[in-house]
Amino acid sequence: MRTGGQILVDQLTRNGVERLTCVPGESYLAALDAMYDADIDVLICRHEGGAAMMAEAYGKLTGRPGVCFVTRGPGATNAAHGVHIAQHDSTPMILFVGQVERAFLGRGAFQELDYVAAFGGIAKWVVEISDPKRIPEIVARAFRVAMQGRPGPVVISLPEDILTEMADVADAPRVEAVEAAPSPAELSAFADLLNKAERPLIILGGSRWTAEGCTAIADFAARFDVPVATEFRRTSLFPAHHPCYAGDLGFGQNPALSQRVRDVDLLILLGARMAEVPSNGYTLIDAQKMVHVFPEADEIGRVYQPVLGIVSTPDAFAKALAGVAPSPDLSPQGRGEKAHAEWLNWTEKPAQIPGDFQYGEVMVWLRENLPPQTIITNGAGNYAIWVHRYWRHEKPFTQVAPTSGSVGYSVPAGIMAKRQCPDAPVVTFAGDGCFLMNGNEFATAVQYDIPLIIIVIDNGMWGTIRMHQEREYPHRPIGTDLKNPDFATYAKAFGGHGETVRTTADFAPAFERAQVSGKPAILHCLIDPQAITPAKTLDQVSRGE
Fold this sequence. Notes:
3 domains; 21 helices
């Protein structure tokens, strides 16, 4: 006989959950108590949104569901932010939410919330457990739903009394996701299309890749001399030094790459969905012949109609390509080399921007001085354009960033990345507005001695929104100015390392001191408000240039 809370935690242990995040709440005290004796790293966070984002980042890094516990009502709605990210980013995640006792349901009890109604539109599955004997069954199914098909978040409601009730029930076995794979006939049809193409392009996206799968697609691209691009914030799926790498399709796209997508005679979407951002507002794809490989059948043909659709995880498809040989007639054409040269030209030398802090030069210094296993995290905002354009990912799973465009993501994600990968340098980028969305989690980093380095790019405004304002309503800014604290002092107040960086020359010594400190660190970098993108000033945007 075990309590429901003990049964629940035993299922997590059985499924290899090594760490989880939470904000404690009285609605799931019995589960918290069961964690006391479990071999699980429990990270106590300062806000449910930050806790959920940390769990989502774990799912990105490992391919197994990130696990988060929050209390009922306000705790659940705060955590919805992370669930939405997991849904858009196809990340496996399980959110456990406290609930009122079963006898109180439907009465409007203290902090009661209908979780099916609240999360039904953003989670893959929402379920409320009504009997402790069903905990192993439901938790096992949750792991499976989160990982299989298009991965995503599951929300499980835990009425308080099912966690304290005693039950005698067997544990469910560890869940391993069923991986859809291509058939020999599908691989043959794919090879035939590719061998006949003169201007093919592969676009990588999706989640739950492995390092072996990333290596397999890199080897395949070299054998077929086919350019490979990555979707928005999936850059680390393909090594930047590879002679076939064509760049990423995000905000501020390389015009040469955008045109390459338009001009292809065979477009191969491998795990990619080509949603609004990578497709440049659904303008890049029109009548191109397309192969779409995706782990869920419902996504194939949803927006674009392929000549060949294959239901397969991107990782399984990439590995299967080892058995696909190029046509004997295929001779070196330099397709990959040309695309790679265009990307290098786009990313090699940063343009000068207004002010004493040259952000592009800072990014070049970082890429030249940090090792390839460095993990980069960022949230949303124009500051991230420099990161994506000038940093070069060489290893898988070194980019942790939200395709959902979520502001406030970078700090929680960076904390989880450093906790999960303590031997890898972790550099987190945040705008001044982005940082203060979840900057309170810096306290979590200090509490658990997680020494990430956070680079706050401060232009004193909600920069992306100001850019849009100046483009649509020139010289009428409203609601976008920010009066910020001294972020270096903020870091020191929490017990971390903090420095202010005003010039390009100040940056490298400050960064090196942050590394030596061994503490969670914030580098407060002041950038000219006119430096709104790597290519345009704010005044140029206002003038419509």
